């Protein structure tokens, strides 16, 4: 029985623990969910809920698509550089969703659990863009499972209201520059840049 319960933990067959919270670190039912949201006591991944203020969802927004991409790139670079102070960042994921439990969420996966904990402890006393930062450890370890598989290609019919993560992408040039900076940072500290294992951008 114990082996069976362990094998279904966090899956849709698990009638006790919420599979959405386990996969995505957020659930549309929140505290009202009928299943348990088991918060991890340690993790490589942190969640910063509602950190990115997406101008796309501001009714007063007058930016064109190019300006909105520049706005996002500036945010992405700022957050990446800030978080690198706590340890090696392997993956940074920003939600492009518009539903309450995912809007503006930022996930950061560090190489080491202790760096994620250090960042979580420090960021909970910080502010960003005039708003307090909230940070928690997240159970998400594989963003391929957390991200919507229909968000590329033919597209997802649920759009921003999908319950899986719609990942907002930085411009390719910025992503390449940040990766080069990280490799340089590792080399200067005597670490092997090949130890980087950032997950590839979904096709």
From TrEMBL:
Listed Pfam families: RRM_1, zf-CCCH
Keyword Cell inner membrane: no
Example of a GO cellular component annotation carried by this entry: U2AF complex
Gene3D superfamilies associated with the record: 3.30.70.330
UniProt cross-references to InterPro entries, sorted A to Z: Nucleotide-bd_a/b_plait_sf, RBD_domain_sf, RRM_dom, RRM_euk-type, U2AF_small, Znf_CCCH
BP GO annotations: mRNA splicing, via spliceosome
SUPFAM superfamilies reported for this sequence: RNA-binding domain, RBD
Domain named RRM: residues: 44-140
Zinc finger (C3H1-type): 12-40
Domain C3H1-type, chain residue ranges per copy: 12-40
Highest taxon listed in the record's lineage: Eukaryota
Protein keywords: Metal-binding, Repeat, RNA-binding, Zinc, Zinc-finger
MF terms in GO: RNA binding; zinc ion binding
Repeat as UniProt keyword: yes
Record's protein name: RNA-binding domain-containing protein
